[in-house]
Here is the input.
Amino acid sequence: MDTQITPDWQNWIVENLARGCVPQSLVEVMAGKGFDPIFANAIVFHFSSISTQAKTALPAAAVLAAGYIAERPRFPMQGSVIKTHDRAVRVTARVSAPVVAVLDDILSPEECDELVRLSKSKLKRSTIVDPQTGAEEVINDRSSFGTFFNANESEFITRLDRRIAEVMHWPLENGEGLQILNYKMGGEYKPHFDYFPVADPGSQVHLKNGGQRVSTMVIYLNDVDEGGETIFPELGMAISPKKGAAVYFEYCNSHSQTDPLTLHGGNPVIKGEKWIATKWMRQGRFG
Ligand SMILES: O=C(O)CCC(=O)C(=O)O
Ligand SMILES: [Fe+2]
Here is the structure.
């Protein structure tokens, strides 16, 4: 079923709305032409709710984002404990649109320490300049040091990846390798989306392997003395880092629409340092 829209179809919708057609009749025509009805409804509703001037200027990607339709959450929206194969994880807070959950005890203090210990030696290696290209990229918006663990790199990593996938209610093999970030004092991650903007040419290479990102789990590996909250500016929400706790959120539906309300970032660390482990899930198998 069609979930992409060409400029011709966009113009058709805009023109017919301008002629005074009932939106529902346009949805029916589109459904008859093979469009997914939910998708057609989102697009038509979007065009009928914006100003005439904006209608001609909007690229298809913006249309898709603007008409985000929330579907059934992947994450369980009831219950205070999630039982995984080896650990009970507590849910301490939830938001329903977008789906955001704050969790306690996804990792034990010992597991957090072990991830930090294993990462420290890898972080050192990651500062070496690529001998082939000499390239060393500095991203100003992301003042942190990072490394990652490949799937099944060790029994320890396999066990954690499996538990995290169980909590995210998504297949283990759709996960990217567990990413570790270390922010020093002043380190931050400016507000961003975890999904790849479809309109960016640079996104295509990322989307080829596993498709779009659908959900994120950020796990705090230490207690931060001050600052370093994970913030969701559109929701007015801030989560303070706590060792072994995590924040989960989802942002991509079955039509590959992505939810801009999941804009988020990491506040500057004011005192101490901050260690996190991030798991990103894809639509399909990754790797
Ligand atoms: O540092 C944080 O709290 C947020 C991290 C984040 O946004 C990410 O890893 O994608
Ligand atoms: Fe992020």
